[in-house]
Design goal:
single chain, 6 strands
Length: about 200
């Protein structure tokens, strides 16, 4: 479907976009899959034309190559750490991401400790806050956050006390009561203002 052009300056870049390098049959659920650096470099070269930054969600499957390759094309990275119910895997993710943040301090602008782990019910808020504080202690020069749907921030305010800034997901279509497309922008604006007031 042909879409109307976005009402922004064609020369302007997006602040940041989410990035995962998987193509075709490549699947992040396959632990043996390792994405080749050349594929990631190709993606990042294309993304550098439209954005200043990429956000990753983990360090698995070769995604740990992103900070080095992003730096080569002038992109910043919001480095993600995938958390779940497996403590050993969580520790591996944290160790790897902390190492990347230390190795690439001019590229990694912030670290996201967990993505929607509260929404999925795979961790308690107190355990999450402890992990966030642990990461902050290891990378004191890098801002640290957690990312989740806006309602989970309101329900788990102790997480707010652990982060440097709040990263909220506002997804109109996926709300408990989905928001129609014509009201989506207004909904995002309303929730963002509500969250700004709350935090």
């Amino acid at each position: 479907m042909t879409l109307p052009r976005a009402p922004i300056d064609p020369a302007a870049k997006l602040e940041c976009v989410s990035y995962a390098p998987f193509r075709g049959a490549q699947n992040p659920l396959n632990p043996a899959l390792h994405i080749d650096a050349a594929q990631i470099a190709e993606d990042l070269a294309q993304l550098a034309k439209i954005t200043n930054c990429v956000r990753t969600y983990s360090v698995d499957n070769g995604v740990d190559q992103v900070p080095e390759l992003a730096g080569k094309v002038g992109l910043k990275v919001i480095q993600g750490i995938w958390l779940g119910s497996n403590r050993v895997k969580n520790r591996q993710q944290i160790e790897s991401a902390v190492g990347l943040a230390k190795a690439h301090p001019d590229v990694i602008s912030s670290v996201v400790v967990g993505n929607e782990v509260l929404l999925r019910g795979e961790m308690t808020a107190s355990d999450l806050a402890a992990l966030i504080r642990s990461v902050k202690a290891q990378v004191p020069q890098t801002p640290v956050t957690y990312a989740d749907v806006w309602e989970y921030w309101l329900r788990n305010r102790e997480v707010y006390d652990a982060v440097d800034f709040v990263t909220i997901h506002i997804l109109p279509y996926w709300e408990d009561f989905p928001i129609r497309a014509r009201y989506a922008a207004a909904h995002v604006d309303q929730i963002r203002k509500r969250m700004a007031a709350a935090f």
